[in-house]
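Page 47, continued from p. 46.
Same chain as before, 237 aa.
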Amino acid sequence: MFLQINQLTKHFGKEQVLNEVNFTLEERKLLSILGKSGSGKTTLLKIIAGLETADSGVIKVENKVMNDVPPHRRNIVYLYQEPLLFPHLNVFENIAFGLRLRKEKDVVIRQKVLNMLEELELSDQATKMSTQLSGGQRQRVAFGRALIINPTVLLLDEPFGALDTETRQTMQVLLKKIVAQHPITTIFVTHDLKEAIIMGDQVGIMEKGVLNIFNSKKDFITTVESVKNEIDFWKGL
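Result:
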């Protein structure tokens, strides 16, 4: 398996946030993790990205243990709900930022950014500043900045949570299209049941620090239909 998570645990004080989380994910697959606020979803992503440290457990990417690898050397990108673009840079330069840090040649940067802008359907927005963009456009730029450095793993923490319904649906379609065009393994966190099903090749449920991943989306949907009126978890989504 491309991504392996073994027995991850995490406490904040006396509160156990992750309880022996285990899962594997194949290369180029997208796992949706569904859960309410406070269930441990964000902590899990931050530990995989290296932004938090697990109390115990192992993170492997391509069979390489990542626990002691610093975040900037993991080639794992973590995107928040808020795009967090650089306000002093235009769209082109926001997307080019990671390539410039890697000191790639200008001609290479230009071609890669132009290609990415086309994929993102933002070719006509290249010279605009982030304050001139809509919420959906800002999120596209954030995706472009992440994808252009070819990360092995992409971690998305409720990326469409702040968007209106129509824009959210458009972004779901666009993200699935873009991710399919790149060799990236993705974890997509959401508290939206429909979105989890739409986005994921697999779906998991996180509750009180415990992650349960279903063998197929069919199994997941069957479970949801059989218990959603009986368990408080579903009523909170």
